[in-house]
């Protein structure tokens, strides 16, 4: 795997390359160093080596950080500004993380009571899932053993739902006039990081291996009101009070992400 550190549009892992965007390139924060170390450590645990491509001043800071902190994790800041695409926040707010599903998957999640990794949810091996056309980023097999989470105010989960629905990358119209939100499962970051199977891979806020039992961990579940009649009979009694129906009267995916995040903050 190659880690490229620079002034990219965003941080992402694509086809064997981890593009790490710095919030104030070429300066690097302790948290950004932490995520680079997390990525390298995760890859090493799965038998993959990493080469870092960056300026020597950045490389030396990473080495010094490793030596000084010796596995002690840096706490996440309240706001991360590597990505400033969202109109209101201009950064990722780190009090919540969420997992977003299309309505069909959300019904299955309610029926089984857990978020499941792709391997468990779809009943296919990681090898099979890696070879599917929908694996456009060419993710390694082990990635499919985890449930993925985004920051609570991020639109990435809904964007992926639209991509899966359309079978292609969504355009501006798909994310505005034709936008149909998914169901969002929210978790408090400082709570879910203590899940026994939580893993920090440096790309996502965190991911969790195999399963997350909702009644034990979920903070709030946001369902667009258009699905209320479809989903109501599937909501289990033991966390029914955590399910909220919210109307999508928004201009686009950004507006919806803002509305839902602000709603959850007020619960």
According to DSSP, the number of beta strands is 16
Assembly category: single chain
**Cα end-to-end separation:** 41 Å
Strand content: 15-25%
Structural class from helices and strands?
alpha+beta
Q: Report helical residue fraction.
A: 25-40%
- Whole-number average pLDDT? 95
Number of helices: 10
Please state the overall shape, judged from the principal axes of the Cα atoms.
Answer: globular
The major sheet is characterized as: 5 strands, mixed
Rounded to the nearest angstrom, the radius of gyration is: 19 Å
Strand order of the largest sheet: 10-7-11-15-16
Following the backbone from N to C, one meets helices and strands in this order, namely EEEHEHEEEHEHHEEHEHEEEHEHEH
Name the poorly predicted regions: none
């Amino acid at each position: 795997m190659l880690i490229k550190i620079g002034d990219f549009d965003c941080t992402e892992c694509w086809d064997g390359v981890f593009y790490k965007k710095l919030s104030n390139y070429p300066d690097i924060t302790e948290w950004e160093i932490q995520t680079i170390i997390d990525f390298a450590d995760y890859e090493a645990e799965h038998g993959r080596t990493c080469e870092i491509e960056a300026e020597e001043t950045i490389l030396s800071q990473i080495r010094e950080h490793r030596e000084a902190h010796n596995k002690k994790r840096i706490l996440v800041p309240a706001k991360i500004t590597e990505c400033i695409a969202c109109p209101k926040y201009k950064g990722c707010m780190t009090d919540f993380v969420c997992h977003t599903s299309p309505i069909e998957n959300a019904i299955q999640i309610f029926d089984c009571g857990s978020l499941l990794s792709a391997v468990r949810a779809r009943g296919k091996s990681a090898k099979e899932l890696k070879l599917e056309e929908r694996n456009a980023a060419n993710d390694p097999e082990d990635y499919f053993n985890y449930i993925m989470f985004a920051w609570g105010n991020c639109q990435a989960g809904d964007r992926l739902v639209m991509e899966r629905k359309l079978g292609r990358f969504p355009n501006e119209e798909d994310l505005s006039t034709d936008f149909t939100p998914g169901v969002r499962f929210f978790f408090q970051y400082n709570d879910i990081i203590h899940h026994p199977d939580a893993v920090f891979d440096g790309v996502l806020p965190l991911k969790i291996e195999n399963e997350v039992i909702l009644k034990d961990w979920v903070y709030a579940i946001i369902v667009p009101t258009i699905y209320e009649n479809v989903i109501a009979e599937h909501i289990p009694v033991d966390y029914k009070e955590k399910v909220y129906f919210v109307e999508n009267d928004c201009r686009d995916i950004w507006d919806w992400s803002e509305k839902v995040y602000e709603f959850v903050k007020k619960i």
